[in-house]
Amino acid sequence: METAVAVLTGLYFAVSIYLMLSRHIIRILLGTVTLSTGANLTIFAMGRITREVPPIIPSGLYLPAEGAANALPQALVLTAIVIAFSLFAFLLVLVMRSYQELGTDDTYAMRDAEPEGEPLPPLGY
Amino acid sequence: MDLTFLAFFAPFIAAAFAPVLVRLLGHNAAWVLALVPALIFVHFAGFLPQVAEGGRVTGGVQWIPSFNVNFSWLIDGLSLTFALLISGIGTLIVLYAGGYMKGHPQQGRFLCFILMFMAAMQGLVLSDSFFMFFVFWELTSITSFLLIGFNHNAERSRRAAMQALVVTGGGGLILLAGLIFLWNMTGVSEFSLLLGTGDLVRESPFYLAALILVLGGAFTKSAQFPLHFWLPNAMEAPTPVSAYLHSATMVKAGVYLLMRLNPVLGDTIAWETILPLFGGATLLVGTFLAVRQTDLKLMLAYTTVASLGLLVMLTGFGTEKAIEGAVLYLVAHSLFKGALFMVAGNVDHEAGTRDVTKLGGLLAAMPITFGAAILSAFSMAGLPPFVGFLAKEEIYYGIAASDPWSVFITTVAIVGNALMLVIGFAVAVKPFLGPKVETPKSAHEAPLLMYAGPVLLAALSLAAALWSGLFHQFISSPMASAVAGAPLEITISIIPKPGIALTLSIVTIAIGAILYFGLARLRAAMAASLEAIGWGPDQGFDQFMRGLVRLSVVLTRTLQNGRMEFYMTATFVLLALWLFRTMFVAGEWPAVPAFPVLSIYEWVTVSIIAIGLIAVVRAKNRLTAIVSLGIQGFAVAILFMLMGAPDLSFTQFMVETLTVVILALAMTRLRLSPQDHRSAGQTVLDGTIAIACGVALTFILLQILQTPFDRTLTEFFNLYSYSLAQGRNIVNVILVDFRGVDTFGEIGVVMVAGLAILALLRIVPKRSLGSAPAPRVPAPEPVAVGKE
């Protein structure tokens, strides 16, 4: 199971990096979404994977059942999912606004901060 | 508190109060401010008897004990003489600046800079620790930059200031490398300890490297050819600066360093070849260029270059008498050159010009200034009874011999000295004698503040020679001993003794006298030959600076070309290379894992995720992309469920639903092209990078999974989740209890993101403002998702 997830995270990273290498901001956005899912799966797998038994203490007992899942990576991933979503929402609005303001979704054409053909800085004193 | 420690900082404190004092007292503030260097002079003069007996005073406080770096000082013959020159001439310069800059709106700032420089220079010569020395060395460069650029409205000033900073500041960095070499070679970082390690340093294989680096610092600071050009340009500064920094003190820092390190680095073939060659070249170039000038200050500036060359030449010549000559000449030069610069300033101030061809007959109007000028010129020319005479005699004793090298150096010295005599008299005599010439201002004697300095310095030139016994006992012999690293006693006096030195002196004076009367023709000849050459290091500096700007532009535009794709590619290529490199170097490749055994529904879920991901990449339109993204997201939620993580599963479901809905809404409002416009070559390149990163990260994860797992934390949470925190859902307990602060931070992140989104949405677009230019894109029209 862990091997399958490891290969799956590799696929996630490859896909997200390929998307982020695009010139189009919407694909970069899709890339960041898949990147965070890949990272979440990596953290999850690092805490070792067990099947189906959630980390919950049955009533009347003081310890979870034998073979219950590792709770710690779950807590970490839970936080990560929420933060990834916040990042996604912010990036999406940024993409929208930059498209409205700049009139393009091509990062090559977004050159307001670093205009092409800028004159040389002054050569005098 | 130790008074010496206070003396280090007193000029800084005075500098801080200078502007306020000038506002309160006007130019008379100089009288108050001059008290500070005067008191420092008195303090250091108190060390004279001790040092004259061969004593050496060290002291200091701990600075960074863990690195064995101390704030320590060393007072011996060499540093004490320098300290007295700096504080003594500094007192006169502060007074002089009070008169010279009278009524200038920025006089307070000027005095502040001068005092800061004084503190830096004094710290430089008194420092025992290399690091203090370096800090003060660069501080003199910085304060010199401020003073040269004082008249910052003029481009020439700005250029000269920049030039001085680049040359001397750059040299300081080279020097730092040299000092670190010495530190590593000997293990000591203080001059007082370094002086005993001469043999160790000279035999080290790194000797030559250390020597060249130290010389790089010394030669830039002391304006040795071919880096001499910044010093004449520095004459853009007001005259008190030229008199103080660029003749008497700062430019001698390089010579000071050479003299200080003479016992350590000297006495080798390299030392005794490089120094006389560069020094001699500088001497000749300086005097020849001086002849060509007609501006009083520039004439003096080039002779300063020449004098520094002479000092470097003598320091490296290697005989005891040459060192004695260098020591005497250094003191003599500070006295007469400081005085002559102030004289030039007086002439400029009172007559309104300092072009020597437009001046004449000022004697009647300025008798006191003339007196100081002529006395100093005698000293500069090396005539008795002045200290310059003592210096010149001692120099000739030191270098005259019959071997070819000595003959060569002696010839250079005679030519240089003869030309310096010419310039000295041209500056001191030409403006004052002869027929009266109409000057821009009607000249009259300068005020007390302005003639006190030159008169006092000229008188000292005389006194040091008349009472040469005392002078040698307290000043020159201890200084020469410190430079040589062995006790020396100077005995020369003003009574000429027949011999080789006197003969050479007479030859020098004769040549000088002949040249003086042919000065106009000599000047024309020099100007013509310089015009024929056309290019000089000064133009070279401009070309260098322009080249530097161009280079940085090319570099910046290559590395920061404004293309996000380039940055991303660089990042991920490095990531892949580094991950593979680490595994390769450590030899830690993961073992081939067993083929995973999954149940049928697990296989189905994993396959759905993989298909969804590939579909996101290959989607031909945005709807497909969004739907595929949703599919893989929901499949991951199912996967979490299968792996015993119901909380993750619920969250993932919720977030994925929101993501898809928001994305779909946003995309319909934008005409974004979901199409990938990559060329085939680009696709292959990007795909290779992406797959390389993916494989590397998979390998890392497999490697991690193949190491034993430490369950301590998990056991801890399992054990205490209910017994301590009273919760049965361990994931929830961790989130809200054990790691509650983390969760709080997470909420903060979400809130900040929300605020940022709100702010972004509420910014009024530019195009909706009344006078804004026409929109660059047509307003987005809502497009139904289904029409895609």
Automatic annotation (TrEMBL), chain A:
Main localization (coarse): membrane
Subcellular localization(s) per the UniProt record: Cell membrane
Pfam family, one: Oxidored_q2
The entry's keywords: Cell membrane, Membrane, Transmembrane, Transmembrane helix
Gene3D superfamilies found in the cross-reference section: 1.10.287.3510
A single GO cellular-component term on record: plasma membrane
InterPro entries: CPA3_antiporter_subunitC, NUOK/Mnh_C1-like
Membrane topology of the entry: Multi-pass membrane protein
Transmembrane segments: 6-21, 28-51, 71-95
UniProt family annotation: Belongs to the CPA3 antiporters (TC 2.A.63) subunit C family.
Name of the protein described by the UniProt record: Na+/H+ antiporter subunit C
Organism: Oceaniradius stylonematis
Automatic annotation (TrEMBL), chain B:
InterPro entries: CPA3_Na-H_Antiporter_A, MrpA_C/MbhD, MrpA_C/MbhE, ND/Mrp_TM, Nuo/plastoQ_OxRdtase_6_NuoJ, Proton_antipo_N
Boundaries of every NADH-Ubiquinone oxidoreductase (complex I) chain 5 N-terminal domain copy: 64-110
Location of the MrpA C-terminal/MbhD domain: 608-671
Segments of this protein annotated with the region Disordered: 769-788
Localization (cell): Cell membrane; Membrane
Topology versus the membrane: Multi-pass membrane protein
Domain MrpA C-terminal/MbhE: 685-762
Domain of life: Bacteria
All residue ranges annotated as the NADH:quinone oxidoreductase/Mrp antiporter transmembrane domain in the record: 127-412
Name by which UniProt lists this protein: Putative monovalent cation/H+ antiporter subunit A
